[in-house]
Amino acid sequence: MDSRYPLASSTWDKSELKSINKVIDSGIYSMGKFVAEFENKFSDYNRSKYSVMVNSGSSANLLAVAALFFIRNNPLKRGDEVIVPAVSWSTTYSPLQQYGLKLKFVDIDINTLNYDLDKLSNAVSDTTRLILAVNLLGNPNDFNQIQKIINKRDIIVLEDNCESLGASYNSKKTGTIGLLGTFSSFFSHHISTMEGGVICTDNEELYQIIKSLRAHGWTRNLDKNNLLCKKSDNDFEESFRFILPGYNVRPLEFSGAIGLEQLNKLPSFIDQRRKNHIVFNNLFKDDKRFILQKEIGKSSWFGFSMVLSKTSGLKRQTVLDRLKKNNIDYRPIVSGNFCNSESLKYYDYEIHETVENAEYIDKNGFFVGNHHYDLKENIEFLKKILSEI
């Protein structure tokens, strides 16, 4: 049975199908001119100097973390302390574990779903090297406060912006506020190349490191004049010359070509998502049974979170059963409390103070989808069903 309110939907039309045929006609399927054009256009949209496309948002996180180990001045090293929010996606955290960093989990704010800023302030220490800011469900972090907390300490800010393409804070696009920002173009995200990701930075050295790491750690994709090595004029020697312990997380040309069409539509997608939020907020803002996500800056509204209030008198399973019966899709709020994850037995980590808000949404929260088209009827149906409980 078709969903009355789906979690995700296709943003493709004939233009994406035509772009696929352009790639087929070119006969070049691996990373090439379409990917390069997409990267340039992505940088233009975000007002970032450099963009590197990869095969997923998870790979974007991996390369962003890896690159910080290979910078010339003060690179990260194993055992360094990284502060992370207690709620995010698994591959926000996985690269940190894989590179031997020590994670310090900090609770979230029950209203914004981003960092509890008081707890973040208390968690930052003289040994903190990195703060990973996850812009959750489209909502920017309060970067002014984060910078005040950092003060004059030498702490890197890295943004996981995989759920928040198109959001902004103080007129600056999220994903470009930290030293590095990561994005995802998976099916359910703001733009879709089905699988895909991007890393943005204004730092030329990091940009070149990431280009090498993306493709085997070789020199082939670096310019003759670069910051990492001295390239010879001998193409044969340079073709298989490896300078970094890299990966192969290159995107296909299909992804670049499709991404170009999606970027053309992105401003209208974000505009409609924001309009849908106005409808959602107007219908639910006075419903004291639910805590709604409080916007910071300008959210791109990946989805609409709903957390049962302590006075609601409702059990989440009762609500979810009613949604399921009426063909309304839902999901947990990302990972819920990641501190409960079975995978943590492989991590070097500590939990700062308590994570009661992360635990609360883990037990009492869910979210419904947002889309690039008008959701007024869907949201009104959701309101009707929830009003009957």
Number of strands: 13
Strand content: 5-15%
CATH-assigned fold name:
Aspartate Aminotransferase, domain 2
- Helix-strand sequence: HHEHEHEHEHEEEEEHHHEEHEHEH
Main structural class: alpha/beta
Number of domains: 1
Distinct helical segment count: 12
CATH superfamily: Type I PLP-dependent aspartate aminotransferase-like (Major domain)
Q: Which architecture would the CATH scheme give at its second level? A: 3-Layer(aba) Sandwich
* Mass-distribution shape: globular
The CATH class: Alpha Beta
Radius of gyration over alpha carbons? 21 Å
Q: Provide the low-confidence segments as ranges.
A: none
Biggest sheet record: 8 strands, mixed
Indicate the mean pLDDT.
97
Give keywords.
Aspartate Aminotransferase, domain 2, three-stranded antiparallel sheet, single chain, alpha/beta, 389 residues, eight-stranded mixed sheet, 12 helices
Summarize the entry for a quick read.
The protein has 389 residues and is α/β, with parallel strands linked by helices. 36% of the residues lie in helices and 15% in strands. The protein has helices spanning 14-26, 33-46, 57-67, 90-98, 117-123, 143-150, 204-214, 235-239, 253-284, 316-325, 356-364, 376-387; strands spanning 50-54, 81-85, 102-106, 128-134, 156-160, 168-169, 172-173, 180-184, 197-201, 290-292, 303-308, 349-351, 365-369.
